[in-house]
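step=encode ok
step=design start
structure_in=
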C-alpha cells in the first residue's frame, strides 16, 4: 500500500474540527459523536476480518485538537461577525478534549487509518504533537490541505477499492464544505456526520430583503441555484398601495428549520438514509445555531444515530 488515499497507504485523511468551539453545545456534539463511533466500531469489528474491510476515520477539520481562537481563513471577518451575533461567548471557548483525542482513546479495536485534515499548518502541527502518544499503536496521517480536496481524494479511493469503509466527520464552524465534494461520496461505504451552520451563518446570509450578496457561497453550500434558493426561502405577495399594486418579498417563517430541512433533503440524494431530525445545538440564548446530522447507506447506522440524538435531545 502506498501513501495516498487509494492505497490507504500509510497516510490517513481524518477530518477533525476546523475550529473546536467550546461550550455546552460543543460537548453535546462531541458526546453524541463519540457514542456513535463506539457503536460503529462494535458493528464493524464483528465482520471486518471476514470481509477484509479496511476502516478509515476521516476528520476534515481537525484543527489543533483543542482550540480557543478562530482560524485565519479568507472569510474569517464574516465568520467573526456571525460569531459575535450568535451569542457564542468567549468564556465558552474553553479548551476541551476534542474529537480526535476521543476517537483515538476508544478502548476497542479502532480504525486501520486515521486521517486528520486541516488547512492551517500551525493547527496541524499542534494536533500532531497532541496525538504523538498514539503513534506507536495507531496509523495516523496528517494532511495540511483543503478539506474539499481531501474529501474528493477519499471518495476516489473508495470508488476504486470497495473494501474501504469510512466514518467521516465534517464540522466546520462555517460553510467551507462545498456540495460538489459531498456528491463525490455517493455510492461509497461512508457514514457521514456533518455540522450544518443553520443559525450561526446560513440564516444570516439569507437576508430579509432577498439581496443575497453572498449567493455564490450559498449555491456552493446547498448545491442549488439562485432561482431555487429564492423560491425556497422567500415568498412574494402583492399588496395594494396608493400608487397601485406592489410586490413585497418576505422571508419564510422558521428559516433555520427550513435550512436544515433543505440540507437533509440534499443529503438524501447522495445517501440512502439520513437522520430526519438532526441534533439541534443551541447557544446561550437558546437559539439554534447548528444542526448535526448523520447520513449513511446503511439503515442500521441511521437507527443508531437517531437513537443517540433522541437521548441527547431528551425526546
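sequence_out=
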Amino acid at each position: 500500500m502506498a501513501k495516498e488515499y487509494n492505497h490507504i497507504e500509510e497516510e490517513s485523511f481524518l477530518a477533525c474540527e476546523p475550529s473546536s468551539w467550546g461550550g455546552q453545545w460543543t460537548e453535546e456534539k462531541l458526546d453524541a459523536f463519540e457514542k456513535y463511533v463506539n457503536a460503529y466500531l462494535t458493528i464493524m469489528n464483528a465482520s471486518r476480518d471476514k470481509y477484509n474491510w479496511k476502516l478509515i476515520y476521516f476528520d476534515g477539520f481537525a484543527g489543533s485538537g483543542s482550540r480557543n481562537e478562530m482560524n485565519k481563513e479568507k472569510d474569517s471577518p464574516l465568520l467573526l461577525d456571525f460569531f459575535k451575533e450568535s451569542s457564542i461567548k468567549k468564556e465558552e471557548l474553553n479548551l476541551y478534549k476534542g474529537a480526535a483525542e476521543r476517537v483515538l482513546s476508544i478502548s476497542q479495536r479502532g480504525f486501520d487509518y486515521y486521517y486528520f485534515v486541516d488547512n492551517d499548518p500551525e493547527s496541524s502541527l499542534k494536533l500532531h504533537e497532541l496525538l504523538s502518544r498514539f503513534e506507536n499503536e495507531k496509523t495516523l496521517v496528517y494532511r495540511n490541505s483543503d478539506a474539499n480536496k481531501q474529501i474528493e481524494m477519499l471518495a476516489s479511493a473508495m470508488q476504486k477499492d470497495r473494501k474501504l469503509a469510512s466514518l467521516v466527520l465534517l464540522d466546520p464552524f462555517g460553510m467551507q464544505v462545498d456540495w460538489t465534494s459531498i456528491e463525490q461520496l455517493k455510492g461509497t461505504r461512508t457514514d457521514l456526520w456533518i455540522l450544518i451552520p443553520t443559525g450561526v451563518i446560513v440564516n444570516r446570509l439569507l437576508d430579509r430583503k432577498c439581496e443575497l450578496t453572498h449567493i455564490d457561497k450559498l449555491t456552493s453550500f446547498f448545491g442549488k441555484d439562485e432561482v431555487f434558493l429564492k423560491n425556497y426561502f422567500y415568498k412574494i405577495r402583492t399588496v395594494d398601495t396608493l400608487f397601485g399594486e406592489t410586490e413585497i418579498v418576505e422571508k419564510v417563517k422558521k428559516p433555520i428549520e427550513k435550512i436544515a430541512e433543505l440540507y437533509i433533503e440534499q443529503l438524501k440524494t447522495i445517501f440512502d438514509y439520513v437522520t430526519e431530525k438532526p441534533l439541534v445545538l443551541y447557544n446561550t440564548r437558546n437559539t439554534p445555531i447548528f444542526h448535526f446530522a448523520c447520513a449513511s447507506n446503511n439503515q442500521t447506522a441511521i437507527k443508531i444515530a437517531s437513537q443517540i440524538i433522541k437521548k441527547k435531545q431528551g425526546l
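step=design ok
step=annotate ok -> The beta strands are 54-59, 113-118, 140-144, 164-170, 190-196, 234-241, 244-251, 273-274, 279-282, 288-296.
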